[in-house]
Predict the structure of TetR family transcriptional regulator.
Amino acid sequence: MERQGASEPTPAQQRILDAAAVCFGERGFHGTTTRDIAKQAQLSPAVLYVHYPTKEDVLFEISRAGHVAALEILRTAAARGGTPTEQLGELAHDFALWHARSHAVARVVNYELGSLTPQHHEEIATLRRQMEQVTREVLEAGLVTGEFALANPSLTALAVLSLSVDLGRWFRTTGTWQPEDVAKHYRELAIRMVAAR
Amino acid sequence: MERQGASEPTPAQQRILDAAAVCFGERGFHGTTTRDIAKQAQLSPAVLYVHYPTKEDVLFEISRAGHVAALEILRTAAARGGTPTEQLGELAHDFALWHARSHAVARVVNYELGSLTPQHHEEIATLRRQMEQVTREVLEAGLVTGEFALANPSLTALAVLSLSVDLGRWFRTTGTWQPEDVAKHYRELAIRMVAAR
């Protein structure tokens, strides 16, 4: 998987990131202290500071890794499909599946962006623009082939992504549907949103 | 507008609620203190406590008012349409318009539910179930008339609402599109998602 210039986290770092995702998910970034994260990770605050000098560094690493993973999912799915319709179906399916399965991390990744430093926020915004671009390019390809008919590919790309992003807010694996059920249905909804009629 | 048993806020209370929405939107519920809210409202903490004994009471009132408004928008829009297709179009349009125009409040309303007490959370969950029900009933009506063809009205109702809810996350009035542009496009997307082909 593409790492966009960052190295893979060490096992200790991953333990910190997992602990922080739990804390941020429960109490929000501003409601979490570095001591909370250290306690959740069963490490001393001193060890945490060695790896991540600030709480914001931890949030950025969670957010960066989540966005890199999401972008990779979109690219891989789009590359798998043959026609634009198949590409969009794969993309919508896999994106929904990731958000349903990883809904706790998805909440932190999507809803705490306002807590990043301006520089870190810009790095994440770049990844988000790439996610929108992959989706928009599939829609534009379908317009060229005549499979799709829609007025605004840019806004529609955001809407396709919104369907899955919002799973982080409401989806729980303890509910009526399994991640696979949602992914299958969202594949169909995304195609319906854009298909020529 | 239906108030679900609560009285209209007084001008002082509305000032507190508006101030709190700004603070929660910027720093999250857990990152905001009652002193922050009092300062933003230019009132003494003592005055704030007279109206709302706890910070959670303020969040609950913002959340309750937002959900009552959103439910009323869905009901009014659905009642305005003639056919299920028209009802769904009105509903998707007006719900998107509200979320785009009120995106700052929408963020607090949708993303801070985990900070409510269990009793307050249940009251809000009841309102959300009613919102889903209004939407689902329109979809089911369209299945009866044959205007719609879809596999899972419950999950589709959630997806229709997701499109607009996620506007609270990404939409800014400083961006490319005005709220009316998004509302018009989302009317079309929602109908496409369910229309018989």
Q: What stands out?
A: Chain B is about 75% helix and 0% strand. The longest helix of chain B spans residues 118-145. The CA atoms of residues 84 and 144 of chain B lie 10 Å apart. The two ends of chain B are 38 Å apart (CA to CA).
